Amino acid sequence: MQTINLSRFIPAPIDIVFDEFTDHERLSDLPMAVSSTVVVPGKTEKNGLGAVRRLNAVVVQLREEITAFDRPRLMEYRIIWSFPKARHELGRVEFSEVNGGTRVTWSTVFTVELPIIGDRVDRAFSLLFSKVFATVLHQMEKRSVARAGREGR
């Protein structure tokens, strides 16, 4: 199993940061993404609890289900289908108010299930996903700061 933990300070209000992060279809704005769509809307809001998002990227394809959604503090998800095949134990993103903005902490635990070469692929995907997650957080920071500026907050 591989574990990725990232944390980033974003100089914008927690509600804006949470909204920008949980706008699943905006994942398609990333350079490596081909498309990102919500294929099943959440129970109380489109991107919320129970939502299923499909991400088509250059190297991977994923279907993820939102398993916890506590606005504006927490979102958890799990991969329910992937190519290449993976087992996913945890996807958790926590948001906390800090002086001058929001701290975002993102954790995931997974393994790629490929016979014989799985361990090497796991390490490669861990490095790849670490870079992807850092890119997602960077993009989200840019959008959050711009939106906070537009809203005068």
TrEMBL record:
Pfam families: Polyketide_cyc2 (PF10604). It comes from the Bacteria. SUPFAM superfamilies: Bet v1-like. This is Polyketide cyclase / dehydrase and lipid transport.
